[in-house]
Structure formats: C-alpha cells, structure tokens
Amino acid sequence: MTIRNVLFLFSDQHNQKVAGCYGDTVVQTPNIDQLACDGVRFDNAYCPSPICVPSRMASLTARWPHRQECWTNDEMLRSDLPTWLHAAGAAGCAPVLIGRLHAIGPDQMHGYADRQGGDHSPNWQGAQRQSMGVLNETNDPTPASLQKTGPGYSAYQQKDVDITKAAVDWLTHQAPALNADGKPFCLTVGLMLPHPPYVVDDAAYDLYAGKVPPPELGPDAADHGFHRWWRDNRGATDLTPEQADRARTAYWGLVHRMDEMIGEVLKALEAAGLMDNTLIIYASDHGDHLGERGLWWKHTFYEESVKVPLIMRLPGVLPAGESRDQVVNLVDLSQTMLEAMGADQLPHADGRSFWSLAQDATASWHNETFSEYCTDAVPAWTGGRAVQQRMIRSDQWKLIIYNDEAPQLFDLNADPSERHNLADDPEHRPTLDRLMARLTQDWDPAAIAKRMLERRVEKNIVLEWTRQTNPTSTHIWKFSPDINRLRDEPSDS
Asked: pTM for this one?
C-alpha cells in the first residue's frame, strides 16, 4: 500500500491577500506561491471564528464553536471530543505537533501523540504570562499594538525560528523512519507569524520600507455601528498614516519571514525523499484587517478578517496550478485531510470533506458556510461588551447578524469590498429572509448569551483556582523578555 503522509503548515493571523499567489505584488512568498503553482488554491476559504482559540478548536473537531461551547480565547475544549488527530491516529497515522496549538486547559494534546516546541502562553487563564518586555500588550488589540511597531524583534519571530528548526530535525530523522516501518505521519507545524506584534527584524522591515501601499478602504460614513464602536474603544481611530505604514510594513516583513521558514520545512521534506507522497496543506486560523476600513487585528466578518489562505499539494492526485471558487471552511478541512489519508470521518461533525472538489473543480459542492464571534464582557480586550454575532456565506451572498445592531447583507459578486449594505433594500428582502432563516435555524443569540453567562460562573472558579494554586503549564516555549526590542522609539505623531 502506498504511504500517504500529511504535512499541515498552520500559521496565525495571515490575511489571505498578502501572498503572491493571492495577488499581492509587493510581498515575497516564493514558497507559498510554489505550493499554489504545484497544487490547488482555494479563494473562498473561511475560518469558523475570527479569533484564535474558537477557530482552532473548531478546526480540530469539525464542529462550529457553539456546538462545542468553545467561543472565546479562555474556553477549554472538552477532552472527550474526538479531533481529526484522534481519527488519524486511529487509522494508523502518527499524529505529531511541533509548535502552536493554543488550547486552554489540562489537555495540551487533543489527539496528538507527540508534541514538541509548545506554546509561549500558559495552559490556564489567569496564570502569569511570560513578559514581552518592551512589547508588552502589543499582541492584543490595544493602542500599544499600533504604537510599538516597525523594525525590531519579537519573541514570536524567535519562537517560529525554533519551531522551524525542530520541524526540520523531525522530518530529517524521524519521518523517514516511520515510513520505513510502514507507518504514515501526520505532522502539524504550528507557526505564530504573522500574528502581532507588528514588529519584524531590521532587514525584513527595511526590505519593504516605502513599498507597502496604504489601505485601499477607509472608514465609511455608512459603516456599521459595531465597527465604529470597536475602532474607538480599541484606540484605532487616531492612527496616523505614518503609524499605519509602519505596522503594515512590519506585517509584510513577517509574512516574508514566515514564508522563508515554510521553505526550510519543505526543503527538509524534499531532502528526506517524502515530498511527493505527502499531502501538504498551508492555511491560517483567521486574517487581519491591517488598517482596511480603519480596522486592525481580526474580530469581524469582513473578508480581511474571516477569510483565510488555503493551499493543498499532492502530485499525481491533485491538479497543479488550479484554483477553486467554491466556499469552504476550516471545519471542512479537517474532514478533507481525514478522507485524503484514508481515515474515518469524524462523527456528528458539521464539516464536510471537499477532497473530491480539491481533485476536480466540477465536483458537486454546496456553497455555504458559517462563522461566529461570541464573547462575554470579561476579557479586557472586549471593551466590556458582550456580543453574539454570526455570518453565513451562501454563494455570492454574505449575511451578518448582531445581537444588538442591525444586520449586514452583501452581494460579494457586485460588491467584493463590502461597502453597500443591502439589508434594508426592499428588492433584496427575499434574500435577507431566506438567509436569516438559515442563519438562525440552529443558532439563538439569546440562548448563547445565557449559556455563556452560566459558563462564566464555572470558569471563574477555575480562574480563582489558578490564581491560588499556580498550576504547572506543560508544553511551554520559554523566552527572556529581553529578546523583544524596537529599533525606533514609538512616536505619537
């Protein structure tokens, strides 16, 4: 039997547009571009939630966040929920993780049989985080994130350097031995970049200085109330063009460095003689606004935030140099990888395998997906505002509902920049009603808000337990705060 391995390259907060194969003419991403040239690029891939933990946990289980009650970045995924790694291991694959998982709680494996590298943050909410030194608070949606930017160095970049070295070593020494014993591997390389801080090493920053264009879209007079509030609450309204340029230039540099690291991993795979019997996937957990619409970070259902890059390569099985316009999601990707490796699908899942679609652009596929964003008012970055929001993408239509604001309806064929809200247009009322019925068929924002308050009472006990007992965190990548630096002092002008 032919051994089919899986190499899943999973980055953090990569805006789909910032890659050569997705149309960016400034950034240098030759390794990602080559994957697209040799494989299939998905142009309408979405994340289950536009923040890290719920997106990643939903991707593991192929279930929407509300179906596993994992909505926020301080939520624990149940250990008894099978993930696609459990299914891969059950099928005889060796599921290995090197790098980022971003799981909260005692289970730091969730189906991986081996893990190296670890996360930079603790397993427990309320536990003492490692100091980022001069870059403290720049990884979250805070004013500091937009003020302390540009050339320098962050622990996140160094973490990926170390993770890349570990992945290269594993592919060089352990992967061939597994295949020689007749056992396929399923390796995830979890990268931090290009997640903020918007800080990159001097050489990468200088490479893009003066070359990155400004945002194409500014705030709109008819912009949605939630987004006006979010910009103001998070301190993004007074950003100068110079500050925006510095942050964007650093981000382009971070994508550049990430692509170089991906190249090192792929080179090791090729040197091991495993390039052509390994399904290679590149994706990210969500995007980043990067100043478009005056917004930064993620947290919305605009395309910059909720759409992700997704590329798959397997010579002789997947065509080369093709793209797919169909609408897919990371919850579908987990089921797809399982089918590709010959493993059973996850039961009771929301995700659907698009393996046939990856092989054949004419394969049958239902063009519909969802994403959700729910928080309570406790985390500091929420601004004290609890929200329950959900999106449906159905063919060219996108409908977004808010628990306390008017909905948004966009025709992405006619309005790819999402500037014209059609929700109040009588001509589009039938479309609004149809999508609203589908969006709320199994999703009740009031019930979710109630359940999140119930969960908060439970989580508060664990939070206080953490503060009182100081439990040990496992699989931690440790660093000195001194590794973080800025070449230039931040300026308010």
From this structure: 0.97
For residues 262 and 36, is the Cβ–Cβ distance under 8 A? no
For Cα atoms 98, 102, 107, give the angle at the middle one, nearest 5 degrees: 85
What the chain holds in terms of domains, given with CATH numbers, is 5-363+447-486 (3.40.720.10)
Q: Which residues contact 120 (CB under 8 A, 6 or more apart)?
A: 130, 155, 156, 159, 192, 476, 477, 479
Q: What's the chain's average pLDDT?
A: 96
The CA–CA distances, whole Å, from 260 to 31, 252, 263, 280, 404 equal 7, 13, 5, 16, 44
Which of 155, 127, 125 lies closest to 139, judged by CA?
155
CA distance 250 to 330: 27
**CA 52 – CA 102 distance, rounded (Å):** 8
Distance CA 236, CA 198 (A): 14
Distance from C-alpha of 330 to C-alpha of 286, rounded to nearest angstrom: 10
CA 462, 477, 296, 288 dihedral sign is: negative
Place of tokens 């103001």: 232
- For 276, the 3-state DSSP assignment is helix
- C-alpha 228, offset from chain centre: 24
E strand or H helix that includes residue 46: strand 40-46
Give 155-204 pLDDT, tens digit per residue: 999 999 999 999 999 999 999 999 999 999 999 999 999 999 999 999 99
